[in-house]
Amino acid sequence: MAKNAIVGQSGGPTSVINASLAGVFESCKSRGAGKVYGMLHGVAGLLERRVCVLDDKLHGALDIELLKRTPSSYLGSCRYKLPDWHTPEGEAVYQKLFAILQELEIGYFFYIGGNDSMDTIGKLADYGAHIGSEIRFMGVPKTIDNDLMVTDHTPGYGSAAKYIGVVMKEIIRDATVYGTKYVTIVEIMGRNAGWLTSAAALAKAEDCEGVDMICLPEVPFNVDHFVEKVERMQKAKPSIVIAVSEGVKLEDGRYVCELADDVHAVDAFGHKALTGTARFLANTVARRLDTKTRCIELSTLQRCAGHLTSRTDITEAYQVGGAAAKAAFEGHTGEMVALDRISNAPYQCGTSLHPICEVANLEKKVPLEWVNADHTAMTQDFIDYAMPLIQAELTPIYVEGLPHHIYLPEA
Amino acid sequence: MAKNAIVGQSGGPTSVINASLAGVFESCKSRGAGKVYGMLHGVAGLLERRVCVLDDKLHGALDIELLKRTPSSYLGSCRYKLPDWHTPEGEAVYQKLFAILQELEIGYFFYIGGNDSMDTIGKLADYGAHIGSEIRFMGVPKTIDNDLMVTDHTPGYGSAAKYIGVVMKEIIRDATVYGTKYVTIVEIMGRNAGWLTSAAALAKAEDCEGVDMICLPEVPFNVDHFVEKVERMQKAKPSIVIAVSEGVKLEDGRYVCELADDVHAVDAFGHKALTGTARFLANTVARRLDTKTRCIELSTLQRCAGHLTSRTDITEAYQVGGAAAKAAFEGHTGEMVALDRISNAPYQCGTSLHPICEVANLEKKVPLEWVNADHTAMTQDFIDYAMPLIQAELTPIYVEGLPHHIYLPEA
């Protein structure tokens, strides 16, 4: 009898993570998998045997189309890190997991996620080899942060970059409307890597003057220099729009948002919430320069804007899911699918397989040579890199004026 | 020789204010106006003789289509209040304005804006009558706030409401992803009227559980009761999503955001900036209840999201512009065009004319009978009212992956 497959989603959601789920599901079915199970809330849910049978949830082509257009993780997510299996308590977790997988007659295991999730795939594949399991474990890349090694870019980034490019254009139109002195500071996600903030550079076009400054976490931040730059820029142009990463750091390593008085109040659990960077900078500029300021946090919207996705991104998200299924059925395990750019004009991209150890727990930063000498803008190399990833759209299916989603109430 | 027309935009921008500009322009041209001038930055710009000739800027049908799809005020905006013309200093301003209008050979004057802008139309029409001017002054309604009297709704509201409905659905999908205790508080614009915040109710559908609480400025806010409601709700459902107006007030009349320590720092000019309501409430809930919280300010995005507009709204914005031109050419002055709902099923809407004194400086609130007894949700009456306004879409014209705009660099 054909083995079953199981797929989970982990880490922060994206607009296109469900397209990868669709790719895994359809490719597994077409390759003759038995059932395709979904883990509810990733490995954490699986450990509680919280699974669904996707075959019972996805009924035909319209559901697949809706799944591709539904933002956030259809199966729910988790931020669970598997323990080291070399300790007795650790191994108990793996024994429990593999017992559940055996009971479900799983032959193929897929995990859609970022570098933390790839750690999970690596550990499961290692332990599987250790006990002689035949289950194949494959990683499917996903993160708006675009910080995975090995792959040219990650599914999820293109749509988030497109969202950022679009709303920066709209914010620039809005910010210039009164013709008065105004500094708008837009805070964009990215704790250590500035890929998302860099995407603000895409707003510049023949119909848009573009943003005036881009501040990445890769470049040490100096508050005085920042204010001086704003002052200089405002002499030429009253309304300045600045894109700043939530993760910009001072030369001493502290996050800029730690300079704000109230930042620690945000999270009741003592987590250092990286929010308030734009607000702190807007307040500082307002105090030091004779100008109105405004801060805008793109917040969750940049990762869940299913109404505004890149068709290129959706297609690639689907492809990496399918490529992972193909690889697993061909006997691969402990690997992640990567996207390989073949050419820029015309844009072409293929997939390849890489051992998980080249990906898990590592971070890819924005190359510093893609930032201009003044540390205010991205070079053409970045534009050439990012522009193909935001091309084309996948129109939502609107029902009663709103994009329709597919939705699993128990997830 | 045919008289010329002039049109200006004033107050806060919307996603569809340029559709009204297109309506005024095309209707004036088809009725035989000479030139159609645009005021750059409204009446404030006109007083400095800052005008453009729209005939030279809008070349054919594609430019009109782009104009309909370009958010924020194409001509720039202002927040200028005309003085009382019964004083000598006041009258000097009017003398200057009318001299400029005479020099430009203006016969028809249009102002697209909200209740403050209608004050401008009222004063100009009064002064025009006083000096025997033949210029006709017509108001074209515009505001995302939907707070204008006389009209069933205002152009700009439908698109902002659609944007809010769409992103609330997306935020709800995102907020439930971990299955853990989470309170998400979304801050929505509206200083005194809760029309925009009410639109969060539109997110509820067969594919979405909807928001859990809606807090309008029309209903006095009590922080303790709010926290109690959240606590009660979280017993049934771990992830709670709340829409709160930036303008919610305590029973003693203070804005809730004034309770936050740092709110006064935001604006260097001493303006009481109504921001920080969601942040304050998220911090309060995190401190008092054992839950993670998050705040999201929709900020400028809700008024400038040209990529996500209601086609119904764009069509009506165009229509009120055209109806204003028609009225002016037929001899009307000192009036505003209103939208009159004829029926809900099928949705039909016509226009009518009203004296400016019925509109200027007045505010229409959300009827309290459209809020449920618990003050947490909107009734079906509100849904029936708002749902037709968000129907259908006007697809952006995408160029290189981003919506293309039409843009006046000098505005």
TrEMBL record, chains A, B:
Its cofactor is Mg(2+). It is an enzyme of class 2 (transferase). Non-allosteric. InterPro entries: ATP_PFK (IPR022953), PFKA (IPR050929), Phosphofructokinase_dom (IPR000023), PKF_sf (IPR035966), PPi-PFK (IPR011404). Keywords: Cytoplasm, Glycolysis, Kinase, Magnesium, Metal-binding, Transferase. The active site is at residue 145. The keyword Magnesium applies. The record marks 116 as: Important for catalytic activity and substrate specificity. Residues 6-326 form the Phosphofructokinase domain. Substrate binds at residues 143-145, 189-191, 246. Mg(2+) binds at residue 115. It catalyses: beta-D-fructose 6-phosphate + diphosphate = beta-D-fructose 1,6-bisphosphate + phosphate + H(+). It is found in: Cytoplasm. Pfam families: PFK. Pathway: Carbohydrate degradation; glycolysis; D-glyceraldehyde 3-phosphate and glycerone phosphate from D-glucose: step 3/4. GO terms for molecular function: 6-phosphofructokinase activity; diphosphate-fructose-6-phosphate 1-phosphotransferase activity; metal ion binding. One of its GO terms (biological process) is fructose 6-phosphate metabolic process. Diphosphate binds at residue 12. One of its GO terms (cellular component) is cytoplasm. Belongs to the phosphofructokinase type A (PFKA) family. PPi-dependent PFK group II subfamily. Clade 'B2' sub-subfamily. HAMAP family: Phosphofructokinase_II_B2. Homodimer. NCBIfam families: PRK14072.1. Catalyzes the phosphorylation of D-fructose 6-phosphate, the first committing step of glycolysis. Uses inorganic phosphate (PPi) as phosphoryl donor instead of ATP like common ATP-dependent phosphofructokinases (ATP-PFKs), which renders the reaction reversible, and can thus function both in glycolysis and gluconeogenesis. Consistently, PPi-PFK can replace the enzymes of both the forward (ATP-PFK) and reverse (fructose-bisphosphatase (FBPase)) reactions. This is Pyrophosphate--fructose 6-phosphate 1-phosphotransferase. The gene is pfp.
